[in-house]
Specification:
The protein has about 190 residues and is α+β, with helices and mostly antiparallel strands. It has four helices and four strands, in the order αααβββαβ.
């Protein structure tokens, strides 16, 4: 019964306010305001029965949480990618230093090393190692050697230097790679 009283009071109050508005330019704004008040009054009992305001808060909160979750997931993927790239770079530098130590340990000259990685199932693996080495220069100035540029890949040949065989074996065992993955270029220029 009280609900009907509220509606009746609102209708009477609306008519009084509409008659008191002197300027017609304000008429449409007052009508919009009073119409909104009428809709809110009519929805009140439905809201009590269905708990629309509580459910609406629940759905709005759920949508907000979903949006934040999506943003966090995108940020995490970007961060993971950055960390992975930085870790690969750091590992590559460590490998280059370790390979240089192996080469110099066999009394050879380390010139350069290029390491390529490939991603498979989101795991980085060594695709190839391109190593350029040379014999250390002789101490005597009387020995002349012509330029030699030999690319050795695959399994060692019988004519390959024993140091190169040992270097190949040690690097392949250390990084658990096939001998075909390691390319040794012998450069004495």
């Amino acid at each position: 019964m009280e609900y009907i009283k509220e509606i009746a009071i609102l209708i009477i109050l609306s008519q009084v306010i509409m008659n008191l508005v002197a300027k017609k330019s304000y008429y449409k704004y007052v009508k919009l305001f009073l119409g909104t008040m009428m809709v809110i009054t009519l929805i009140k009992p439905i809201d009590k029965i269905m708990d629309i305001s509580g459910n609406l808060d629940y759905y709005i909160t759920g949508i907000e949480i979903f949006r934040e979750k999506s943003e966090l997931k995108a940020d995490m993927e970007l961060t993971d990618s950055y960390i992975k790239n930085e870790a690969v770079k750091a590992y590559k530098k460590v490998m280059e230093r370790e390979i240089e130590l192996v080469v110099t340990g066999y009394n050879m000259q380390y010139i350069s090393c290029d390491i390529e990685f490939s991603a498979k199932d989101d795991i980085e693996t060594i695709k190839s190692i391109r190593l350029i080495i040379a014999e250390k220069e002789a101490e005597s100035d009387n020995i002349g050697i012509e330029d030699i540029f030999i690319e050795i890949s695959g399994k060692p040949d019988k004519g390959e230097d024993k140091n190169e065989v040992h270097i190949r074996k040690e690097i392949c065992e250390k990084y658990e790679i096939d001998e075909d993955t390691l390319i040794i270029i012998y450069d004495n220029s």
